[in-house]
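Let's sit down with a protein and look at its sequence and fold side by side. Once you have written the record down, we can walk along the chain together.
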Amino acid sequence: MHTPRLLITLAALLVLAGCAGQRSQEPAPRAPAEVKAEIVRLMPATTADRKGWGPGIYAAFA
């Protein structure tokens, strides 16, 4: 008779214990110049005015 109640209690405790763990640390934010350079690097080589597009794309997502 007490088995279902015990199982529910144990399950609830396990769920709470899983939520209580430490969060992993987020990586430090990157410098804007580094992000702009990566945007330019990832663009196709045939793109006209790649260096002009990099800061514009960065500004759109910032």
